[in-house]
Amino acid sequence: MATVSYYKTKSGRRWQVQYTKPDGSRTRKRGFPTKAEAQAWIEDQGVAQRKGTWVDPALSNIPLSELWDPWIAIKKMRHGTSTWKPLDSAWRTHVKPRWGLTPINQITTEQLQTWIVDLSENKSVTIVERCLGVIRGLLELAVTNKRLSTNPATAVHCPARKRPKQVFLSLEQLEALASKCSDDKKALVWLLGTSGCRWGEAVGLTVGDVNPLRGRISVTKSASTVGGRVVVGATKGRRDRVIAATPAVFELLVPLMAGKSPDCLLWEKRGGGHLTTPSKRSWWHSAVDACVAEDSSFPSLLTPHDLRHTAASLLISNGASVKVVQAQLGHASAKETLDIYSGLFDEDLDSVIDAVGRAQRAAGSRRKNKGEPKVSQKAD
After folding, report:
1. Could you say which of 16, 139, 209, 352 is the most buried, measured as most Cβ atoms within 10 Å of its Cβ?
2. Where are the beta strands (DSSP E) in the chain?
3. Strand (E) positions, 227-356?
4. For 315-329, how does the pLDDT look when each residue is reduced to its tens digit (9 = 90+)?
């Protein structure tokens, strides 16, 4: 049962609703400017209770910032530093200043969409998507915890993202790049370009992770560069895997392992420690510039991550199935592999169709050799 009554404020008359919660306790909600709005609110609450979507207004009257600590704790539990650290930065820089003190029951879809549009005028799509992901995740936690009935951020849209052009080196270009590097970096380039290892996974490898006899490498950690510092943690998605590498790669890795204990890194920077992602003045860019000087078609903006794409293209062009590529690259699903490299698999369509055509022609020839079956005709 609910009753509506008015009370006086300095701004004039306001209306309040006294009502019974599903647990039988009595409470009230104040601040309605008109009696009609108070009555409409009562009707909405009744509908929500009948549908089982009712949320106690007292639980939804908390600032968004109260959801941050439990939400980021979940992210830290499930993901590595390279995943949650950018989210922390987005929260502190953009989300918290605008929405941190706002009660979650006062955040609307319209307000969020306006904010995203304004943010996209001077921020990259990556930053905008990250900010929306943070506030969407926080509000989804509120829904899960029965503080909100729906997530107002669900229907908010980000600017369209242009899919970055993927760069694939040919084997000849990969060999040219490796030839411009020192012996230890040559092994790293060949590993990245043929196995599909991520940069952080490769530079996090220790001697004990490499098994030349089996031709396998265990990928169990990642040394990611975050804010100029290397943070060692779990692999992306926290999925350990065992990958294959070519005999030629192992021939380059074995000398790097000689005389080292199993916990020693394969690659170290000067003075010790993990290699960081190559800067603009590094061995990587020197090697790329040297390749461009010799071959104008060589990609001048090549990044270490492009070698992961190169490895995928080599695997696919040599007949690897989607599942094999998925396992080698460490994708969560075959769908993810197809989403990223569908164009490479499409290139195989011509050869597949040609094979089907040959089989079709062969079947037709066999029928002719056997003689076409005669069709009996019945008299009318």
Report:
1. 139
2. 2-9, 12-20, 26-32, 210-211, 216-219, 222-226, 229-233, 241-244
3. 229-233, 241-244
4. 988 888 899 999 999
